Amino acid sequence: MRPRDFALERFFARWEFAAELLLCASDVEGWAMSDVLALADESDRRRWQDLHLGYTESPGDPALRAAISGLYEHVNADEVLVFSGAEEAIFALHNVLLAPGDHAVVVRPAYQSLAEVAVAAGAEVTRVDLRESDGWRLDVEDVRAALRPNTRLIQLNEPHNPTGALSDRPTFDRLVSLAAEAGAHLIVDEVYRFLEFDPADRLPAGADAMATGVSIGVMSKSFALAGLRIGWVATRDHELLARLAAFKDYTTICNSAPAEVLALIALKARDHVLMRNRAIVTANLRQLDVFFDRWRGTFEWVRPRGGSIGYPRLLADVPIDRFAEDLVRETGVLILPGTVFADAGNHFRIGFGRTNMPVALDRLEQYAARTLR
Ligand SMILES: Cc1ncc(COP(=O)(O)O)c(C=O)c1O
Questions:
Q1: Which atom belonging to ligand 1 lies closest to the Cα atom of 157?
Q2: pLDDT below 70 — which residues of the chain?
Q3: pTM exceeds 0.90 for this model
Q4: Residues with a CB atom less than 6 Å from ligand 1
Q5: Where are the domains of the chain?
Q6: Quick one: CATH architecture of 7-32+272-368?
Q7: Residues 6 or more apart from 251 whose CB is under 8 A from it?
Q8: Which CATH number is 54-269 given?
Q9: pLDDT score for 1
Q10: Cα 209 vs. chain centroid, distance in angstroms?
Q11: SS3 state of residue 107
Q12: Cα(128) to centroid(ligand 1), Å
């Protein structure tokens, strides 16, 4: 079965490059290529200059796989499979792990492919709701209640898109135990990992937490290099890795050679890269705190605990689709209505990874002052 249209991507297809200011992007301000190359050590500078643009090794460049494995505690380079973005990794994982007769547990709201590909693969999918009234926290008992004898995977997204929620450690440990008891894979989409606002809140990676745990990572978000289209799966489950590698032969075969080298350079300099990216996000988040405090009563704001996005609710009696449409047409500022997450609760996603966020927020504020007060 073909997956249904990806509502968020269709919305971005219309607006992402037409709107003047994106106040809903989930990535962090992209690095300039010259700035990435300036981080290269001598050997990687040579690697870049001498690069041959032929096919690359299908599982990923060995040096890149080694650098990625360095993000984990118990993962070796050969337990990393590189994909074209996290999106290809999600597509491959769900197609390989799920078939008709299988069952998956997925949170709601969610980045659509995390549920849609499973449905298209023929699996039954139970959506476990995150609730704003609980601070968007995942309730382990809801996950337990959703389990069935044929549950093949429990899937998390930590930190979470679109809410910025992040489970606490006891909750995460209980979810790991639950997956082990159920004999299910624990899939953790960790594309916003390393952007926890309190580093003490960082959870163990899925691939480290259990032998059948799976981490999905990408260069796009915390590392601010979305244009590389480099993502990966890390897992100690070798049988799963072999099946994923065989599936990839039908999607991209191998990765972009220049993108692999640039990703390698950025990961070797990851402390520096993450420091710059975290500085952007935390400065913007402080501004959002002040904004939402000033506009209490007009917007409900659950402060995110990690990532570069949050999920406020417009309390005024204006449908969020209309508010978003009028806002972008009048001010050039794009927010993402929660309806693209099939959420009728008048929420919208706000992104705070871009350096021009203060300008966009200022325009939103002026517009709100004109139309909502
Ligand atoms: C939770 C989540 N997973 C996966 C992806 C896909 O990442 P990429 O577009 O870099 O492949 C995104 C992108 O927004 C995301 O938010």
A1: 1
A2: none
A3: yes
A4: 26, 85-87, 111, 157, 161, 189, 191, 218, 220, 226, 231
A5: 7-32+272-368, 54-269
A6: Alpha-Beta Complex (3.90)
A7: 84, 88, 91, 92
A8: 3.40.640.10
A9: 80
A10: 19
A11: strand
A12: 20
